[in-house]
């Protein structure tokens, strides 16, 4: 039996974490003391924001360009605590980071996706945390590997950390998709079904990758009964060194939070979560199917342009026969019926011809 059953609810971490959703917000990368303090002061006025996060060290930046400022940022965060009363939270990626954060009274630590993906790095952090009581949050790994995520959580838990939470920030897509990260909601649902006591925070900013999708992702997290949200925020979003496209100003954070509908869990929550798990698996696969079909049609248009330039006919019968035969062979080996596959491939081929025809007509 995993030790994660001793995880404590976030309401017991600190007195102020007694509402849902628990909201974490702040800049991904700190550009200056003025920017940090301005953002914190504005977020203080957003009632639901209880934790102020800031990146003191970021994997996307080089040590030369950013690492030397970590100590300054930790000192500025102490001023944030004194002036606003917000709890502070910093990402750690090495034992040295842990030591510096604890020395400067950072309230909560989080482990980033890249670090979670490396069991050796997680073990180093766990060793540095041995005997400490600081709360720790662990982001999911870059790839959709629930066992790797659980391994990281258990490693930190075995170091004596019972104030522990998971952060769902989605998974790296190998092809361009509507969202920056593929949510694969079924994975955090499965995590919660295995470890009922483990709090789960959603990071809609990194899943969305664009401001317009953040409210949708935040609402989805609430519908799945997640414990809280973690959102990127800058007082002046144009100052962000990275990921400007997903940065909210504090007023926007407030607007997103005010738009949320937070429902009570149903009486049959366990059964409902099981059903929701299957539904989300279907939704995840459907989204990927549609995005792959859109990518296929984009390629088809490129082929249409090539055929138009070379004065070739749209229908290449031998090629179509090969596509159909290969598709049926693969599909039937995976348990799909030949009738279904034939109809599906014909529909895709029909749409491909239509797309190429449009290209030809434009020429």
CATH architecture of the largest domain: Alpha-Beta Barrel
Mean pLDDT: 88
What is the H/E string? EHEHEHEHHEHEHEHHEHHHH
Roughly what fraction of the amino acids lie in strands? 5-15%
How many β-strands, per DSSP?
8
Percent of residues in helices: 40-55%
* Low-pLDDT ranges: 61-67
Global structural class: alpha/beta
What is the helix tally? 13
Spatial strand order of the main sheet: 1-2-3-4-5-6-7-8
CATH homology superfamily name of the largest domain: Aldolase class I
Shape: elongated
How is the CATH topology of the largest domain named?
TIM Barrel
N-to-C CA distance: 66 Å
How many domains comprise the coordinates? 2
Radius of gyration: 24 Å
Keywords: Transferase
GO molecular function: chorismate mutase activity; transferase activity
EC number: 5.4.99.5
GO biological process, one term: chorismate metabolic process
List the helices and strands and how they pair.
Elements lengths: L21 E5 L6 H12 L4 E6 L15 H15 L2 E5 L3 H9 L4 E4 L1 H4 L2 H11 L6 E4 L6 H13 L5 E5 L17 H9 L5 E3 L1 H5 L5 H10 L4 E5 L17 H10 L9 H41 L7 H17 L4 H25 L1
Parallel strand pairs: 1-2, 1-8, 2-3, 3-4, 4-5, 5-6, 6-7, 7-8
Helix pairs in contact: 1-2, 3-5, 5-6, 7-11, 11-13, 12-13
Would you kindly provide a brief summary of this structure?
The protein is of the alpha/beta class and 363 residues long. The chain folds into two domains: 3-263, Aldolase class I (TIM Barrel), CATH 3.20.20; 270-362, Chorismate mutase (Chorismate Mutase Domain, subunit A, Up-down Bundle). The chain has 13 helices and eight strands.
